[in-house]
TrEMBL record:
GO molecular function terms attached to this record: aldehyde dehydrogenase (NAD+) activity
Keyword hit for DNA-binding: no
InterPro entries for the chain: Ald_DH/histidinol_DH (IPR016161), Ald_DH_C (IPR016163), Ald_DH_CS_CYS (IPR016160), Ald_DH_CS_GLU (IPR029510), Ald_DH_N (IPR016162), Aldehyde_DH_dom (IPR015590)
EC number: 1.2.1.3
Domain of life: Archaea
Aldehyde dehydrogenase domain sequence ranges: 12-474
Protein name per Swiss-Prot or TrEMBL: Aldehyde dehydrogenase
Assembly: Homotetramer.
UniProt record similarity statement: Belongs to the aldehyde dehydrogenase family.
Positions of the catalytic residues: E248
Taxonomic source organism: Candidatus Methanoperedens nitratireducens
Record flagged with keyword Oxidoreductase: yes
């Protein structure tokens, strides 16, 4: 059985405690690796290594840093199929989706490398003569990255690549359910020529490793993707040391279907949004808000399509829906199905743990007669469960869409431009799709949400550089005399 070590100061090392934990295939429950469990001493060593490496790395011209990322991108491309199959074994998502996950990492590596010749500031005229004004971007310092299990290489790449090109040094903690893909990403960056100490990987429990990252005073910023509860805790704890914090948290994303929509197209989007990645996306479509006139036909078509989905091991080419990540999540989904039934929602399809499959499988599940205030319509389930909610008109649909605490992604299916633009203007979300599902972000555009989905930061696109840099304003006075802004203006 392969053993996976920590990566500290450019070397693969055993954990100080000697403890390890198991990495399990959620489709077969087979052991696929033994992972070293870091402790407080390991995190301290990693932080010290990152601190020591910062001056040299941040002083390296960004185009030279970019060469390493370009090499890493090409290596990711060369290993795409191998990494995709490994991801399906480790996380469970079907192989075609795993390929998309790896492609996102490839795209982000290329995109971030390209930023090595940009890292743009701005210039602006001064109000005084013989004076030049500009802004420049500077790295933050040592940055802590904490990533989730549902996109085991894409989300790490979303954080690692921009943080590196900006000149930061990193402490990286991947999710304990899917550490191997992150380990492979680090191996690729090491092989691409990343100097020792610049990127350090520590695997282990959130209460130990994650807590140490949040509390270590040498770490100047923390970027976290995960649950709302953990995000709130990180924000509160990091505030004690005035750390810069970037949070990407939950979603309860709506698809609005109006009475003039192309229903077959809408069904395509609902099935993909609700059951793609087994519903384990922060952008998953867990609510369908349908105009009352077309709700019966929409429900009929949705049930027909969903019944055709094949659940099973994601390595099999005919599989549409893979397992959920672990038994805890499996039981959580089953609990929410029971909650929905007790609240009076009508279960029209699915709702059961699938047996005798050995892994963590749950049936694609549809509820109807759901009211907006039910828990299944308010709380993030993170599984293959979708709720259908009736709306009277576009204003009612938008009101229902906005009735949750999250605000990540949203969608509307309508042939009416007025409906589309009203949705863009009024839906409280960081992302709105018109006649497309709630999932499918592109890496050159900002990604993130409002309300309880995050704290205002955005990942990917040009905002990725903003997340991992500090802005400095520079005034260059070549007048040869004391000039006083505002005061010396007549």
């Amino acid at each position: 059985m392969q053993e996976y070590k920590l990566f500290i100061n450019g070397e693969w090392v055993e954990s100080s405690s000697g403890e390890m934990f198991d990495d399990i295939n959620p489709a077969t429950l087979e052991l696929i690796g033994k992972i070293h469990k870091a402790n407080e001493e390991d995190v301290k060593n990693a932080v010290d290594a990152a601190e020591d490496a910062f001056d040299t790395w941040s002083s390296t011209p960004a185009p030279r840093r970019a060469k390493i990322l370009f090499r890493a991108a090409r290596m990711l491309e060369d290993r795409k199929e191998e990494l995709s199959r490994l991801m399906t074994m480790e996380m469970g998502k079907v192989l075609k989706e795993a390929r998309g996950d790896v492609q996102e990492a490839i795209d982000m590596a290329y995109y971030a490398a390209g930023e090595g010749r940009r890292l743009l500031g701005e210039t602006t005229p001064s109000e005084l003569a013989d004076k030049f004004c500009m802004t420049v971007r500077r790295p933050i310092g040592v940055v802590g990255l904490i990533t989730p299990w549902n996109f085991p290489i894409a989300i790490p790449a979303w954080k690692v690549m921009p943080a590196l090109i900006a000149g930061n040094t990193l402490i990286f903690k991947p999710a304990s359910d899917t550490p191997i893909l992150s380990i492979e990403l680090v191996k690729i960056l090491q092989e691409a020529g990343l100097p020792g100490g610049v990127l350090n990987l520590v695997t282990g429990e959130g209460k130990t490793v994650g807590s140490q990252i949040v509390h270590n005073r040498k770490i100047r910023a923390v970027s976290f993707t995960g649950s709302l509860e953990t995000g709130k805790w990180i924000l509160g704890e990091a505030a004690r040391d005035m750390k810069k914090v970037s949070l990407e948290l939950g979603g309860k994303n709506p698809i609005i279907v109006m009475d003039d929509a192309d229903l077959d197209l809408a069904i395509d989007g609902i099935v993909w949004g609700a059951f793609g990645t087994t519903g384990q996306r922060c952008t998953a479509a867990s609510r369908v808000i349908a105009h009352y006139k077309i709700l019966p036909e929409l429900l009929k078509k949705l049930i027909e399509r969903t019944k055709k989905l094949k659940t099973g091991n994601g390595l099999l080419e005919n599989t549409d829906v893979g397992p959920v990540i672990n038994n805890s999540q499996l039981q959580k989904i089953a609990k929410y199905v029971d909650i929905g039934k007790k609240e009076g929602a009508k279960l029209v399809l699915g709702g059961n743990i699938i047996k005798p499959l050995p892994g963590y499988f749950f049936e694609p599940t549809i509820f109807t007669d759901v009211s907006p205030d039910m828990r299944i319509a308010q709380e993030e389930i993170f599984g293959p469960v979708v709720s259908l909610i009736k709306a009277q008109d576009i204003d009612d649909a938008i009101h229902i869409a906005n009735s949750v605490e999250y605000g990540l992604s949203s969608s509307i299916y309508s042939a009416n431009l007025k409906n589309a633009f009203k949705a863009i203007e009024k839906i409280e979300a960081g992302i709105t799709y018109i006649n497309a599902s709630t999932i499918g972000a592109e890496i050159h555009l900002p990604f993130g949400g409002i309300k309880s989905t995050g704290n205002g930061t955005r990942e990917a696109g040009t905002t990725a550089i903003e997340e991992f840099t500090e802005l400095k304003t520079v005034y260059f006075d070549y007048s040869g005399k004391l000039q006083k802004a505002q005061i010396d203006i007549e």
